[in-house]
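$ ./design --mode recover --in tokens.txt
reading tokens...
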């Protein structure tokens, strides 16, 4: 459960501040 929460947080942060755009590359 904790892993899922962390993943959601990471995804949210990345969406707000994308450090590395693998999709773009």
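writing sequence...
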């Amino acid at each position: 459960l904790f892993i899922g929460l962390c993943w959601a947080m990471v995804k949210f942060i990345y969406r707000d501040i994308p450090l590395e755009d693998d999709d773009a590359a």
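exit 0
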